[in-house]
Design goal:
By secondary structure, this protein is α/β, with parallel strands linked by helices. The protein is built from nine helices and ten strands. The strands form two sheets. A five-stranded parallel β-sheet has the order 3-2-4-1-5, with helices on both faces. A hairpin with a 7-residue loop joins strand 8 and strand 9. The longest helix has 17 residues. The chain is elongated, with a radius of gyration of 20 Å.
């Protein structure tokens, strides 16, 4: 029996993103797939309906896979693909599998010989790098950094690597700690290091701004509390 595929379907970065920006080829996949693995069932249902109001949500199988999933049975989530039907992974926002539990599902698919098909769509990490003016040929994404006293150590180590290798450092923070993170960056990084703050990408209050740390220290800082934000710097 031919196995089904696992489609990795990117979603909107902001709820205000117009539905007509969703690629038509992706919409065709959404309309055809009956088995979904999602980070959040409520928002996934809303997303699917925004693509096609005629989709019968109740007829779909939908399993949740998130950072809160304990002992998630990714093999069971791919049972339909083993039986020849396609499965799709949908994240809360952006690209599944990137800073996202969808990576576990993709890894399981590879173990089972199931083709993983990434679809085109927005990535806040790449979009922030594109607009930052920092080095796009050598960069590293570190996900979430440690908290407390270990944060300063991590930042200094990253800055040292950035300076030696001309490597852009990219990371994210829990939204409620964004303002504190920006303050820590300005206190820790060297004055000449270029820092980019990318807030609410594709949202109504999008801000992507790169300045030297010395210049950031002289300006009124943007409001980042509980706002999706990507931080980037290059020493």
């Amino acid at each position: 029996m031919t196995k089904g595929k696992l489609y990795m379907i990117p979603t909107y970065l902001a709820e205000t993103t117009p539905c007509d920006t969703f690629p038509a080829a992706n919409a065709d996949v959404v309309k055809s797939v009956r088995h979904y693995v999602v980070e959040n069932a409520r928002t996934a249902r809303r997303f699917l309906k925004s693509i096609d109001k005629s989709i019968d949500i109740d007829s779909l199988t939908m399993s949740e896979l998130s950072e809160h999933s304990v002992n998630a049975n990714t093999a069971q989530m791919l049972a339909a693909a083993e039986n020849g039907e396609d499965v799709a992974m949908v994240s809360e926002a952006g690209c599944p599998g990137v800073a996202d539990p969808g990576a576990d599902l993709a890894a399981e698919a590879h173990r089972k010989g199931i083709q993983v098909v990434p679809l085109v769509g927005p990535s806040s990490l790449l979009m922030s790098l594109m607009a930052s003016g920092l080095n796009g040929q050598n960069f590293a994404f570190s996900g979430y950094l440690p908290i407390g006293s270990e944060l300063t150590k991590a930042l200094r180590k990253m800055e040292d690597r950035s300076q030696k290798e001309k490597q852009t450092q990219i990371f994210i923070e829990a939204p409620y700690r964004n303002d504190k993170m920006l303050q820590t960056l300005l206190q820790t990084l060297k004055a000449e290091t270029r820092l980019c703050v990318a807030r609410d990408i594709m949202g109504p209050e999008e801000l992507i701004l790169t300045k030297r740390v010395a210049d950031w220290r002289k300006t009124t800082l943007p409001e980042l509390h509980k706002r999706p934000t990507v931080f980037l710097f290059l020493a």
